[in-house]
Amino acid sequence: QVQLVESGGGLVQPGGSLRLSCAASGRTISINDMGWYRQAPGKERELVAVITSGGYPNYADSVKGRFTISRDNAKSTVYLQMNSLKPEDTAVYYCTARTFYALRSRDYWGQGTQVTVSS
Known about the structure:
This protein is mainly beta and 119 residues long. Strands 2, 4, 5, 6, 9, 10 and 11 form a 7-stranded mixed sheet that branches. It has strands at 2-7, 10-12, 18-26, 31-39, 46-51, 57-59, 67-72, 77-82, 91-101, 104-109, 113-117.
């Protein structure tokens, strides 16, 4: 029903920047909130940022002031601009979209993209 494809991950030095993109396809009209999660090996999955369909963002305390989430509804795409990256930001980043259709809420997930911050 909804497919999500992330891109933009890679290797970057501490203090560097990356911009992640997540393009949605399928029944994109049903998408409400979108967001980014991340998970490092042996650690719990954590919410990084979410953004409503109206463009209102929320961030985890660990990334406030460094990351910016945005979306382009015309392109059905959500972005995560990551600045001042730290080694502890290293993780697999997953895009997620929440849909609401026929009185049901469902979550969809991308395949994940690796972000590695290392010198």
